[in-house]
UniProtKB/TrEMBL annotation:
UniProtKB keywords: DNA-binding, Transcription, Transcription regulation
Protein name: LacI family DNA-binding transcriptional regulator
GO molecular function, one term: DNA binding
PROSITE patterns associated with the record: HTH_LACI_1, HTH_LACI_2
Pfam family, one: LacI
Regions annotated as coiled coil: none
Record domain HTH lacI-type: where: 3-57
Amino acid sequence: MAVTIKDVAKQAGVSPATVSRVIADNPRISSKTKQKVREVMEELGYFPNFQARNLVAKKSQTLGIVMENSATLAFQNPFFPEVLRGISTRAHGSQYGLYLSTGATQEEIHREVVEMAQGKRVDGIILLYSKIGDPVMEYLGQCGLPFSVVGRPYKDPETVSYVDNDNINNAKETVEYLIGLGHRHIAFVGGATDFVVSLDRMEGYRQALDQHDIPFVEAYAVNQELMQGKEREAIRQLMALDVPPTAIVTHDDMVAYEVIGYLEDLQIRVPEDISIIGFNNHAISKHLKPPLSTVDISIYELGLHAAELVLEKITDESVPPKQVVVSSRLIERGSCRRL
């Protein structure tokens, strides 16, 4: 015979309404009562019918997760599994599931987000990127569905709940670290210039050069658009300059891995011939030979805060937009050396 909510209530010595509130993780129920009821549920083998509960509450208990690429491509970058770990931890604590976008193009992603919102598949959305002129963010700003963003929005950031690092200052401090090691010929290999994080890190790079009276050299600034799928040739041309760089700051650790491979093909050694530093501090970075110097941007915390922001908005739509800045730290390893 199936165990009912009344059976749990009787065994726990509370009302069926209290059991329902515990299942809904109502903050008004004490931690002691929640623990007692959950222990009884486990003891009796009672599993709540969330689908029925959600129909009554008109909630899906699901958060939509929107990535810049399809899930297949996104998971090739260690950033996304780690930020999802943070999101999942916070979502699980509020008994929310996750719905991952599967669109492979910008048009497909936009259509899927519209379907999520209009079809009430999710109660809120977390956008894992911030781009200039992104139709997805524009739609979310208009449709009324609670959402948060990992990354500073390019337009009217004070009107959006988002979490980010201080990417300008992080890049500035990274370049200043290399300047402190004696480098003055410092290149920047960045990402796509329609992503706000790429623009911010480039701005920090330029600010550091300017404050130390080091001229900005156009040929030292390489981005995804300039490379146009010819990354190996772009690095070869960079190192073939009359005055080649002695250090390279890369957009992230993934780019650093590629650049190190291209440098090896050119018989250019790291760090003996050139220093290199990345961002994100992926787990594999400390195992490279040499270990990669990098900036730890607290990816897990970015996901945790992104989930907190959207869940807070789902609970109370009157909550004003919040902006959270997560700390970062530079990790010195073996890929940089003093001149």
